[in-house]
Write a structure and sequence with these properties.
The chain is α/β, with parallel strands linked by helices. Helices cover 33% and strands 26% of the residues.
């Protein structure tokens, strides 16, 4: 890895930002890429480095975004016209590059994700115990009072978990804010009666019904817990169950895809560099050559 990519990767890890390292592990001529070539793809689709031409990059970026969402590495086989047929090797996912001059690239896509964030809002024995357990389970634990300024600074992605336990009227304010974010797990430490009251108040505030349906209230798996440490165990177990359920994180609106009308490749709309406007419609292309061919027509 070049010093520039190494420095960028180190900086992103320090800031807790996810990224993907894509590495060419094998190639068949004709192709301009070489084994060992690397690129770093950030979660906004920005590419640093190089692993192939304009036809290869959109597929690599799209799979990098998928890897960030599901946390799983993958081995891609990018097959151009005249390249090998579909791979029979287990674990390789083939993609055609019909606008490619030929050859084959095999690229390993590896996500580097920060520790999952566990935000504990409030104070008390349950929060103290959950903080200790969360750090032991390798979560990045943040304990906060739930003030608006503090909450705004948090990066609540689908991998983030938020446990609210202020045991005060501020529970509603905190939940109203958190349930408008992308936080994957949100729960409230409360009795069943109090939880029902707060859910009703959140409905009155206009919190989206689908998000209210995802709220765990009261928090934790029912294991008959009574002591603070036991309640903390039940909550952490529920968090782990949620994130290990095998369900991929939902794609965002920015991850929409389109089909290149010239070569048929699937293009990620958010990161597409080449596009043309036909009336009120936008057409997306994998490379300059496809765009120019379309525009000439």
């Amino acid at each position: 890895m070049s010093e520039d990519l190494l420095a960028l990767a180190s900086d992103l890890q320090r800031r807790g930002e996810p990224f993907v390292l894509a590495t060419v592990v094998r190639c068949e001529r004709p192709t301009s890429a070489k084994p060992g070539a690397k690129a770093l793809i950030r979660d906004d689709g920005t590419v640093s480095g190089w692993v192939g031409g304009a036809c290869a990059e959109p597929t690599v970026v799209r799979e990098a975004m998928n890897a960030i969402r599901d946390g799983r590495p993958r081995l891609l086989g990018l097959v151009g016209e005249g390249g090998r047929g579909p791979s029979r090797t287990e674990g390789i996912v083939d993609y055609p590059m019909t606008c490619h001059s030929g050859g084959t690239l095999e690229i390993y896509v590896e996500p580097y994700l920060p520790k999952p964030l566990l935000v504990l809002v409030g104070h008390g024995p349950v929060i103290d115990a959950l903080s200790t357990l969360g750090r032991g389970a390798d979560y990045a634990v943040v304990v906060t009072t739930g003030g608006p300024a503090e909450l705004e600074q948090l990066r609540l992605t689908p991998r983030a978990s938020v446990v609210v336990a202020t045991h005060a009227d501020t529970d509603e304010d905190v939940l109203t804010h958190v349930l408008t974010t992308d936080a994957g797990y949100v729960s409230l430490v409360a009795s069943r009666r109090r939880a029902a009251v707060i859910v009703d108040r959140l409905k009155e505030r206009g919190v989206a019904s689908d998000r209210l349906g995802q709220l765990k209230a009261p928090a934790g798996i029912d294991i008959g817990a009574t002591e603070p440490a036991e309640i903390a165990v039940s909550i952490l177990a529920e968090i782990i169950q949620h994130h290990r359920s095998g369900k991929p994180e939902p794609a965002t609106a920015d991850s929409m895809e389109a089909t290149d009308p010239i070569c048929g490749m699937v293009v990620d709309v958010a990161s597409a560099r080449y596009r043309s406007h036909v009336g009120d419609r936008t057409v997306y292309f994998c490379c300059r050559a496809c765009k120019e061919t379309f525009d000439r027509r």
